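Support request, please re-run this one:
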Amino acid sequence: MKRRTFVQSVSLGALGLGCPSFMTSTKAPSGLKISLTPWSLIRAGYGGDDPNGMSVFDFPKAAKNLGFDYIDHEMFHLPKPLKDEHLELMNSRCKAASVKSAVLLTGGAGDLGDADKSERKKALNKYQYWIDVAAALNCKAMRNVCADFITISYDEKLKYTAEGVYELGIYAKSKGIDLLIENHNGYTSDPEWLAQLMEKVNLSNVGVLGDFSNWRIKNNPEVNYPNPYKGIEILAPYIRAVSAKSEEFTPSGEESRIDYKKMLAILKKAPQLEFAGVEFFGTKIPRNQGATLTKDLIEKYW
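Re-run finished. Output below.
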């Protein structure tokens, strides 16, 4: 698959899916676009068979049936090897379902903040490829995971990561894509470090994807940033999308670990926030229900 040969507009095609009675299509709250992340419904990657039989190409229609007008994509849910025809089919299914693409989630293909310049370059080349995929899928942004292992000093990692993110950000800008760095363990789960990274990079298309629950700084012993609400507050000036995590719910429909009312009150002060990506990863209730309950919480408190 050549980097600049992706087909970006294709003919219609769709696969209809049933919709249980508890699913209702509702309008997203003003000023915030709610997207659905594939992991909420699909628990297999790289073309593997999902236990519930959900194909990634069925996902746009399934999301629409749940009331979502936007979807995210995850690189490990896309077929491997990824071919032009896969992207054409996904665009076709999105168009047929009347859903738009929000964020392509990437990571695990190298560290843009690697202290070894040659390794940093390898990561840059790999993620440039995924920027092209994001553009081909008509996404607004691409999420990247970097600096998620602490192996060198705070200041060194900040320096190298700023260099890598800046280079990828420049490339993303040439493709019309926002590059979002997620708080995803390691130094990125220190909100002050991540805020400094944004200031050093200082590109108009580079920002943060704020994850509600990824605050583990290191393992053995495990160290977490102590206050996720404070973390989101520190990152708010740079946040353009969030990963609205959920796992279990109380009988009244509240998320059992995350105070959505408090979290969304903080996010109302995020001037660049555009997307809230629902990411349900629970196992005790049906996936469709978990995704719907999470969406309901966002709408309730926005």
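The domain at 33-301 is CATH 3.20.20.150 (TIM Barrel). Confidence is low (pLDDT under 50) at residues 1-29.
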